[in-house]
Amino acid sequence: MVLNFQICDNGLISQLPNHLICHILSFLSTKDAIRASVLSTRWRSLWQLVLGLDLDSLDLGLAFASSQFSTIDDFVVFVDKFFYHHRESCIHKLRLHIRTVGYVDYSSYLTKWIDAATTRRIQHLDLHCDRLFKVAVKIPLSLYTSETLVHLRLVRVILVSTKVVSLPCLKTLHLEFVKYTDETTLEKLISCSPVLEDLSIVKYTEDNARAIQVRSKTLKRVDINQWYDREYGLVIDAPLLQFLRIIAYSTKNIKIINTGLPAKVDIDANVLSILDPNDLTSRSMMRDFFTSISRVRCLVTSYATTKDIFHYMQLEPLHQFCNLTGLSVICCISSLEMLLNLLKRCPKLESLSLKLVDYKETKKAGVITSTVPSCLVSSLKFVKLEGVLFGCGTELNVARYFLENSTLLEKLTLRNDYKEKNVEHVRQTLHAIPRCSCTCTVVLL
């Protein structure tokens, strides 16, 4: 259908039928949708027809109210009216950020609202409870069997134990600071969502849990950020996985199986800092871990992870990264030789991003004596170097190494917070370095 717009006093958008204006308003928060209603008398009540509710209990500022919600009771009344008004219609989106202080259990309110949303075929549910709650909010059982839910984000709530989970349309699951009454609840949420593609977990909390089990035949993206001192294990079993990010400072046991060919892996897991060279079990675990990510195409590692990789390489050979084309590492300036040894395990590397740090290391960078990795001759095209406030000498030496030994290099970028008076000196030094690649461009940031 083609709409014929004519310019009028209220603008082109006012010529749209009500259902299209409501659709436009659905992309706004409820606060902004109510504010927009003052633009035209015709819009005065259209926000009430929007098939979604997006509210913050302390930051609404309704256009028709003198102030924000004065009490949580006002907030409850407002949400109740919304569900009453939509008792015969579907609800596409429900986002509630409840922020209050006290010992009141708000589970009864949320149970009523989530039950109502599930009945009205909810598609997107985003529930954020403030950390100042003295009584944790429990999620009702109706949520586990929603037939229409596509996106679910829960923050600071409790997921109660259930025997039945069926979420046939769920594609995105984000859980932040969520507590579980037992460790099988999370496993069921994942395994009983047959089209789940995106999983994000921040600080998994379950007193009796020993491992996070992520098993899915459809997951494409997994982001685990644990943030705690407890020592949990982590098992990833996802054959279609394309992106994996793990931050797990205390995890001793990371097991990744059946992941196919992930496009990108981002690891920040300090798992080797206490590795005993004589502990064959730990060495075997780490060997399996590196083998499981060896087919990745892009690898990002933190300083701790890079250091642990170098530690492992001193104990036994590292598996070849035969498909790796992009590598981003944070490396101490005293470990440049180990970095080159890592590059030797990456024969198809095309892009390298290297951040050099100096965490009060007593041993400074010396002359690089290692043989040139094969990727510098056959595949490396882009190098980005970044230093952290310890002078430009080391970065220039590393830049010199890549310029003099990289046959196919197209661009080398050097970034640092140089003092203004040193910038021209650095630029002249870079320009004077002989280059193995005649097409290489040097960029100084």
Overview features:
3-stranded parallel beta sheet, F-box domain-containing protein, 15-stranded parallel beta sheet, 445 residues, LRR_FXL15/At3g58940/PEG3-like, 11 helices, disordered N terminus, single chain, alpha/beta
What can you see in these coordinates?
With 445 residues, the chain is an alpha/beta fold. It has a domain at 325-445. It has 11 helices and 21 strands. It has helices spanning 18-25, 30-36, 72-85, 107-119, 184-191, 280-292, 303-313, 336-343, 374-378, 393-405, 420-432, and strands at 52-56, 93-98, 124-129, 138-139, 151-155, 158-159, 172-176, 179-180, 198-202, 211-215, 221-225, 233-237, 243-247, 254-257, 264-268, 298-301, 326-332, 351-357, 382-387, 411-415, 441-444. The protein has a 15-stranded parallel β-sheet with strand order 1-2-3-5-7-9-11-13-15-16-17-18-19-20-21. It has a 3-stranded parallel β-sheet with strand order 4-6-8. Helix 3 (72-85) packs parallel to helix 4 (107-119). The model is unreliable at 1-10 and 60-67 (pLDDT under 50).
Largest sheet: 15 strands, parallel
Beta-strand content: 15-25%
Class by SSE composition: alpha/beta
Compute the number of helices.
Answer: 11
Rg result? 28 Å
Oligomer: single chain
Choose one word for the global shape. Answer: globular
Q: Give the averaged pLDDT, no decimals.
A: 78
Spans of at least 5 consecutive residues with low confidence: 1-10, 60-67
Helix fraction by DSSP (H/I, runs of at least 4): 25-40%
Q: How many strands in all?
A: 21
